[in-house]
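Predict the 3D structure for this chain.
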Amino acid sequence: MHSHLVVASYAKVNFTLDVLSRRPDGYHNLASVMQTISLADHLELEETDAPGVRLECDAPGVPRDDTNLACRAAIAVLSKTGAKAGITIRLRKRIPTQAGLGGGSSNAAAALRGVNQLLHLDLSPADLIEMASDLGSDVPFFLTGGTASVRGKGERVTPLPDAPLLWFVIAKPAVQVSTQQAYHALDALPHRTSARSTRSMEELITQGDPERIVARMSNDFEQIILAQHTAIALAMDDLLMARARNARLCGSGAAVFGVAFTRPEAEEIARLLRLRQYDVFVCRSVSREEAIRLEEAVG
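Done. Predicted structure below.
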């Protein structure tokens, strides 16, 4: 019987997202405090006799070849270690795509950690972070999970104390946002300034005051996304009208999140948002310990 392993792959929200200077390599310097949330995909990894990586997915439209980040991550682990095993990945999707919730990056990090454990390869954290940085800007964060700040293009991750428990209502309008175009639009704004909220958010996380944490949330992409996509602006307004404690954009969109202090409060906000025909998800913050837990390999 072949070994298999199930890995939870959590989404994230940005408590802050400061878009800073454009780098010579074409990327932007960022500063952000990120938080894993309980909205999650699951990857079932199985060792097989046939060489290579095979990906199955229950969601239409998700690539099943090596353009999928989870597949690329598994291939990277096999290539780096020279392991001859085959891997089948069964991806159960729940995180909406093109939402700014980091689903693809989270899947990649889950595959890196999962294949490493499944095949007992003993890759070091530094090895995994190096591969994660090559796969995408958000992937290194998901190797850390919980509450963390990221800088550079996303490769510099600093773990923070777990933020106080918060509840989130995710609402996704039926629109799409190009992250690349969002960066271009920000660069084109005359005299643009960043909110530069990340350092103060780090201090608030250390202090553990939920009300001040929620009040200080910010996202630089809102400067252009809300003007370009009225459906996203309306979704944020609807969250606030439903008495969310704050409402912010998820990454560069298209999803938005509202914040609540209790589950009943979040469920009531979600009930009102569903009347507006959004895709709606209720979730909570996830601690670092929970975010990086792997189910035991069997077989």
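The chain has eleven helices and ten strands.
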